[in-house]
Amino acid sequence: MWKEIRDREVGKVQSNYFVNRIASDRISKIELSNNKDIVSPHKGAVNSLQVDLTEGRYLLSGASDASVAVYDVQRATDYEAGGLIAKHKSIFVVDKQHEHGHKYAITSAIWYPIDTGLFITGSYDHHINVWDTNTTQVIMNFKMPGKVYRTAMSTSATSHMLIAAGTEDVQVRLCDITSGAFVHTLSGHRDGVMTVEWSTSSEWVLVTGGCDGAIRFWDIRRAGCFLLLDQSQSQLGRRPPILKRSMATKDSTSKPYTKQRAAQRKLANGNGTKQSPIGKVPAKGSARQRLHPGMLSSHDRATAHYGAVTGLKITEDGMYLLSAGSDSRLRLWDVESGCNTLVNFETVRLQTSKPIQLATTQDSALAFVPCMRTVKAFDMWTGNTSVTFRGHYDCVNCCCFSLQDQELYTGGNDRQILVWSPSKLIPDEMNERPAEDQDNWSD
Amino acid sequence: MEYEEPGGGTKVRALIGKATESTASEVDPRLLKAIKSVVRYSDSELRIASQTLMDLMKRDHSQVRYLALLIIDELFMRSKLFRTILIENLDLLLSLSVGFRRNLPLPAPPSIASILRSKAIEFLEKWNDSFGIHHRQLRLGFDYLKNTLRYQFPNIQANASRREQERRERERRSKEILLNKYETLKANFSTIKEEIHSTVDEIGECLDILHSKEEHMPLDALDDEEFEEFRSSELRQIRLDSLKEGERVHENSENKVVFDALRELYKLLVSKHFASVQEWISVLVRVDVADSRFRDSALKEFIDIRNQLQPLKKKCEEAGCALLSTSNDDGEEQDFWEDGKVGPIESIRPIASNKRTEPLDAASNSHRVNYVALGSSNKESNDIDTLGHKCKEVDPNSMKSKLLAEAPVVEWGSSLDAWGSNRIVLANQRGLELESHWGRVDYDAVIPADKIAELNVQATLYREQQIEIQQCHAPLRKGGLCERRDLRVCPFHGPIVPRDEEGKPLNQSPSRDKIHIDLGTDLVEELAKQAVKNVRERDKEAAMKREVDKQTLKRAKLAKIREHNEAVLRNAALASTSRSAAISGDVEATNEENLLARNKKQSLSSMLRKKVTSKDRIAQKLLNTRARDATITQQTLSDDAVYREAFPNQW
């Protein structure tokens, strides 16, 4: 480590490379943190966790007892056992007692991506609430047609402020915070929508996974979906590694879809959404033109999973999509081609009845997947289990990876929020520990 | 180290296997020690041991799991490496030992399974207390079992600290009480002393009086010359005794008054002063005050007083004051009744009332007379009465006498000693540090003042007024009057009516008698009716009984038939059953390769086998192909039997 620092100092190593080396090194050492406890005030299963995107400091958790809490994960509220264990108590809790609080379980709690002044909760009581963090008051309320399973806001959006909501209903709704109205209804799924996820590369692209096993891609500027993932469509291996390149060129290329994919597209909805500017009527096959563009794929019954799609996660570069289904399968999709990459993830058992929240590391090397009572870290490209995190005593619902601290937060049905962090390199204040853990052979 | 060779793990594996193969409730200490010593010096052995133990925990037998858990605990408390290895799979270990997962219940012998569970919970708490801060998993597991699954933990540490807290609290409170007592003592030390001194003086005076009276007794004057004549030791002893006996002042009519006073004073001395002095001494010994000057002086004085009191008490006893002079009185009582005089008792009454007006010294005497007359039951009340009388005489129109006139009459007793006092008393501290032989003793149990008052409330029994039963006074034929005492009706002379000197009734009331007779006739009619009814009922009962008898006879017959049927069936089924049993036995015997285990009286499998129900047995047999046919026939037979039982006549 010291050698690396010196190399960095003399300029042998690029700073970017150095940072990545350190981060991945830390990630590989993640284990259950003994000296960081999040004191969960929830009386029910923790369904959703998110660290805020601006500071990486405030953890938002939503639980099935209709409570939301926010924790400061960087500054502990108090210490126990002689400063050995840092306790992070919630900064505030909103529960059923709140006059505008949710009545039933909260399934989704997300931060407003721009700052920590707002957060959004979706609940089984059919409502999506937008909260002011500082006053803990509801400032906006959307009534949905059914139980809300998942809400999402685009992290890369600059021109819209839409909450995508997946509900019991077959339609995905987009709620606009600025106007307080539904601006779009995306129909195509044949069953409730378990997960929604915004593309990280395009602010207009939304990915949804439904209980019907379909994963659909939507361009929110248009009606209908433009891509439906089919598990029978597969390609061998991923493309040549473009991770580094894409990261370097991320800002310049806002649309990585502009490659020659029309040839590969078998789903041939022929719209070429990405290529055509908005509003321009595609001048292609006349037979298809008669149909509404969105309706084309709605006739397609291709499925990505047998059973419901319970979790979706787009990699940081927006090139790949990891999906988890109630068939206990994990699939990695190439977003560009819409094909299954056939990465064989080791057989696991996944929770089937609830949407699960997946997480990936920054360089998308590892994917954290809640597998019943454990969380497994899979190597994204080989599908091998690299670590199994055991600590929860009941099913894990969600995990959230803090890119800044390389910490993993997991929440489960046992009402706990566990912190998994890299073990300390230099165990500081070793001599001040109250009672050192050591052998004690009396005979 | 020899154990670090490849394959060295077999030793620890064998040891652990051997240790968990017993049916005892403890791991063999020698084996345990061997395991520990093997594991201590070798990390690889420790890893193997942990692996082996986890494998054993997965065994489908609670006893094996239990013993494995005991070994795990031993190693867990000692080795850090073992802890880190084991904690990786803590949830598995807990689910195997506590059985909190519904799909993983604890295996077979349920009694041991429950022990296993309680032990596991206890261990988890212990581990959490000792190593919880180093291992988040331990804290999580503990928290989950405690707060989510609501398991009852023994809570050892919290209990201990609570007990400590309680003890401190108790000490503090007892100290406070002692200090309070000490303060009160400080306040009225002089009065206490005075009281005691006055009593002592009075006793001394009484004794003086007695002895001065005895001065001129002739026996006392026997000189020493005579003493010389008694040579033999026995005789001398006898003489000494008789001398002593002679020296004793005997109670007689002259000194009765003095004796009574003495007795009362003695009682006061023993029951109140002596006890209080003892108590004060113990208080002074135990109290912890900054300024110990008063304490020391008071303690000294109290000890002096006690030393002074002891000879006095002895003297009193010598003088013939038994602690309770009732036995003496009983004798007198006996004498009185043996006389068997049926004299008019009213004659005594006026005497008693007269005597009440006597001065203080005579009071006790008077009540003695009363006592003789009316029996021991109302002795005390009389005593109080007399006291009241006395006071009235002393100062007839003072405030005190007025209050006394309307004050309730209370029996004399030790409760009066604590009259109106407002003290808290420690229940279990009497100056003796007794170990709690009969169980846990709550040292700080305090009896609050109101409770003390409640306890000291003297139960007053309702006493019937002594009814003077009138004599019949009917004139007798041979002259004189009938002396029978009956309540209402004399069997010879009819109802008792007031009569004059010659026995003539004063006023006649014939109407009352008549009513009485009328009532009588009514009663007769009633009785006759009742008799008729009784007879009829009895008849009915007899009829019913006959019916029942008939039924039972019938039932017995049916039962006999059924029994016969069953016997036939059993005989039919016997052959097949025995064969299958023999087969299963064979299978088991071949399974038991281990001769040792076979020789053991009680093996692990036997523990499991013990609880086999008939259902299981049937299932076993069903599995056995050769026995299947037999079982089927047997089951159909049993079905038949059920059918037949329902209709026993058709067989």
UniProtKB/TrEMBL annotation, chain A:
GO terms for biological process: proteasome-mediated ubiquitin-dependent protein catabolic process; protein polyubiquitination; transcription-coupled nucleotide-excision repair. It comes from the Eukaryota. WD repeats lie at residues 39-81, 99-141, 186-221, 302-343, 389-421. Keywords: DNA damage, DNA repair, Repeat, WD repeat. SMART domains: WD40. One of its GO terms (cellular component) is nucleotide-excision repair complex. Residues 239-288 are annotated as: Disordered. Pfam families: WD40. This is DNA excision repair protein ERCC-8. It comes from Quillaja saponaria.
UniProtKB/TrEMBL annotation, chain B:
SUPFAM superfamilies: ENTH/VHS domain. It comes from the Eukaryota. The keyword Transmembrane does not apply. The keyword Metal-binding applies. InterPro entries: ENTH_VHS, UVSSA, UVSSA_C, UVSSA_N_a-solenoid_rpt. GO terms for cellular component: chromosome. Residues 406-508 form the UV-stimulated scaffold protein A C-terminal domain. GO terms for biological process: response to UV; transcription-coupled nucleotide-excision repair. It is found in: Chromosome. Residues 168-195 form a coiled coil. One of its GO terms (molecular function) is RNA polymerase II complex binding. Keywords: Chromosome, Coiled coil, DNA damage, DNA repair, Metal-binding, Zinc, Zinc-finger. Belongs to the UVSSA family. This is UV-stimulated scaffold protein A-like. It comes from Quillaja saponaria (Soap bark tree). The lineage of its organism: Eukaryota, Viridiplantae, Streptophyta, Embryophyta, Tracheophyta.
